[in-house]
């Protein structure tokens, strides 16, 4: 059983909550979200908000908070082999009330189908909030090139 090692990122000004499924091995090592260099999350977000790509963890934290984006994952703990979403089992979800009680979240997005699956299974009915599924920024989602991802993710900025 692996417990999620990264605390949620948010403040009272966060308007958008983006949820992944569970941090990859690289993200767990980096102790921050989307730590794998091949993941396109930071490139996509920088393009959506018309800013340069943040490089360091402090830059990434400041970037998200400046743009009123909260970031966390659906899963608190699970069994997982490496970073393989398809191997996830024995899921315990995160308690999103932590963020929702502190911030004025207007919209919840999930990064990819795995996050959507576990959000719908464990969280949606308890919170009564539907999440909008965006195409995964993972390099495993080869069907979506960077340009298409950026177009799809622009909805995050419209909140």
Tell me the number of strands.
Answer: 7
**Can you count the helices?**
7
Number of domains: 1
The CATH architecture: 3-Layer(aba) Sandwich
The fold-level CATH name is Uracil-DNA Glycosylase, subunit E
Report the uncertain regions: none
Assigned CATH superfamily:
Uracil-DNA glycosylase-like domain
**Mean pLDDT score:** 95
Quick one: biggest sheet? 4 strands, parallel
Helical/strand content category: alpha/beta
SSE series? EEHHHEEEHEHHEH
Proportion of residues in β-strands? 15-25%
Envelope shape: globular
CATH class: Alpha Beta
Helical content stands at: 25-40%
What key attributes describe this structure?
single chain, 159 residues, alpha/beta, Uracil-DNA Glycosylase, subunit E, four-stranded parallel beta sheet, three-stranded antiparallel beta sheet, 7 strands
Mind explaining what this structure looks like?
The chain has 159 residues and is of the alpha/beta class. The chain has one domain (2-158): Uracil-DNA glycosylase-like domain (Uracil-DNA Glycosylase, subunit E). It is 31% helix and 19% strand. Helix 2 (41-48) crosses helix 7 (146-153). The termini are far apart. The mean pLDDT is 95.
Short précis:
By secondary structure, this protein is an alpha/beta fold. It contains 7 helices and 7 strands. The termini are far apart.
Question: What is the element layout, followed by pairings?
Answer:
Layout: E1 2-3, E2 16-20, H1 25-30, H2 41-48, H3 57-66, E3 69-73, E4 75-79, E5 89-93, H4 97-100, E6 107-111, H5 113-122, H6 124-127, E7 131-134, H7 146-153
Parallel strand pairs: 2-3, 2-6, 6-7
Antiparallel strand pairs: 1-4, 4-5
